Amino acid sequence: xxxxxxVGEWLAELLRGGPDVGAxxxxxxxxxxxxxxxxxIAGLVAFHLYLMRRQGIxxxxxxQAGRSELFFPWQAARDLTVVAAVAxxxxxxxxxxAPPLEPPADPTSSDYIPRPEWYFLGLFQLLKYFPGxxxxxxxxxxxxxxxxxxxxxxxxxxxxxxxxxxxxxVLFVFSAGIAxxxxxxxxxxxxxxxxxxxxxxxxxxxxxxxIQTDERCTSCHGPDRVAASVQPGRITxxxxxxxxxxxxxxxxxxxxxxxxxxNAADTLAxxxxxxxxxxxxxPAVDAATRHVQVLISRFCLNCHVIDGVGGKDGPNLSxxxxxxxxxxxxxxxxxxxxxxxxAKMPALADRITADDIKAIAAWLAAKKQP
Length: 370
Hints:
- This protein is mostly helical.
- The protein has 14 helices and two strands, in the order H-H-H-H-H-H-H-H-H-H-H-E-E-H-H-H.
- The chain has helices spanning 3-15, 26-55, 71-96, 121-127, 135-156, 168-190, 202-213, 215-218, 239-247, 264-277, 287-299, 326-334, 336-339, 354-365; strands at 305-306, 309-310.
- A hairpin with a 2-residue loop joins strand 1 (305-306) and strand 2 (309-310).
- Helix 1 crosses helix 2 (26-55), helix 7 (202-213) crosses helix 10 and helix 12 (326-334) crosses helix 14 (354-365).
- It is elongated and about 100 Å long.
């Protein structure tokens, strides 16, 4: 196996005085987990069984009526049955209950909040009560004391009887520990950070449409092009680089020359879409809706809020269909001052085609709830 030399190298470094922390790569830790630790566990189990057969079960053992049975094959068969049952349950959970894989890790992401698996949530929650320099107490001292107590338990619990009434002290400490772990795990599971909204907003959807259709993107990205298609979860460039690239796609290093003129609204839409595409895939949208989303992002979101995104100079357009029909909205787009003399909105009839105005008006009129 290719991992064997890595394990040998790691053990050699350990024998020479300890490996450098910087050299402990993920590959070495992976080798340690899949080769050394399973072998160590198997060896400890075998040693435990040997001691149990040689020294007997830790007592005291209460004699029971009936004939005695040999450990093998009777007790061994029971143990193997339980092991097989547990293995089947684990195999079923791995087959049907495996959690979905998240997108590839993004080292440039600033909004990702890592959380451990459920069996570490108790320790994770405990760390919150020991901030700063006291974090070592929760991370090392308390777990170390607990593990030390468990290791010394055979010498601490030396009672002559296994009856609970004769072991109240040990059982109280053990029960308190289990209750503490359960409470901390529950608190850790409940204390979840705010999740990013799952619904894509209009600007992000418009940005996706532009990535798929705008010549600024399609001239280079796509099948048989100089660059691969933009795929969700496969964006690794840092946000600063992406933002500069969207502004001036033909220049990799920003500031080499003055960027060409482009629509600022389209640029912002593409940038926000790329940020969202780092971790999630966009919903499927038909071509007509996609075209309208680009138009609204380009001409409306600078001044109007729609579903929580946009400017605040104009009225909120999250549900305009509750007050206006498509014809009324169309008139306000063509010539707002004809409807309201002091309207600050500019007339867009000379900037948008009549068909596009009708499409925008119909889309907005259909929005009757945010």
